[in-house]
Amino acid sequence: MDYHISEDEDVQKLKEWWRRNGSALIGGVAIGLAVVFGVNWWRDHRLGELETASGLYEKMMIDYSEERRETAVIEGARLMRDYESTPYGGKAALFMARISFESGDLKSAESQLRWAIDNADEESTRHAARVRLARLLESQGRREEALALAQVPDKGGFESAYAEVRGDLSAAEGRIDEAREAYRESLEALPEGSSYGNVLQMKIDDLGEGEGNP
């Protein structure tokens, strides 16, 4: 066998294969590298964003505790605006609502809680906002709106809190049996050993004994 001829044939075959497939191969490698670099960039960007948001949230809490409320409000607004996609955007909205409530600005408190319900990254934050908004609406006599917030099908671990809201609303409207039932549901949903059970039991006791109830 003439090895030189064989090698020439192999070279020609390789050149032909490269002519047919080289562009696709280069394109595939380029796409693969772009995906890898893109994923790494997004991961680093996300970690940096979380770190910045965490630091800003911590600073907001410190400023509030040291009575620099105006600065805390600015930081909270920035978290809601620029870091909505992180857990700290929703947490900031909850805290901003607290500040607004304490200053008597109930309209802003309501707006901030609704923002958290619609935009918070974490489900637990959205549920906390719903419960707090229901309480706020209840305090304003807007009981139907409050009840609608407390009747969500998926309660995400907030079963006790939602049931207590329903109990308070029922009690306020004189629906004593419904209130008692809701309070008992709230009591049963509490984590074992929770001291808040004493509060719920007091609410049940304050309603008295209903007809047909032990």
Q: How would you describe what is shown here?
A:
The chain is mostly helical and 214 residues long. Among the domains are: 45-121, Alpha Horseshoe (Serine Threonine Protein Phosphatase 5, Tetratricopeptide repeat); 143-214. Helix content is 79%, strand content 0%. Helix 3 (87-102) packs parallel to helix 5. The relative contact order is 0.05. Residues 1-5 have low confidence and may be disordered.
Number of strands: 0
CATH class of the domain at 45-121: Mainly Alpha
Regions with little confidence, pLDDT below 50 for 5+ residues: 1-5
The number of helices is 9
Shape: elongated
Helix-strand string: HHHHHHHHH
> How much of the residues is beta strand, in percent?
under 5%
Structural category is mainly alpha
Calculate the mean pLDDT score and round it. Answer: 85
Largest sheet: none
CATH topology of the domain at 45-121: Serine Threonine Protein Phosphatase 5, Tetratricopeptide repeat
Helix content: over 70%
Radius of gyration: 30 Å
CATH architecture of the domain at 45-121, by name, is: Alpha Horseshoe
Q: What distance separates the N and C termini?
A: 104 Å
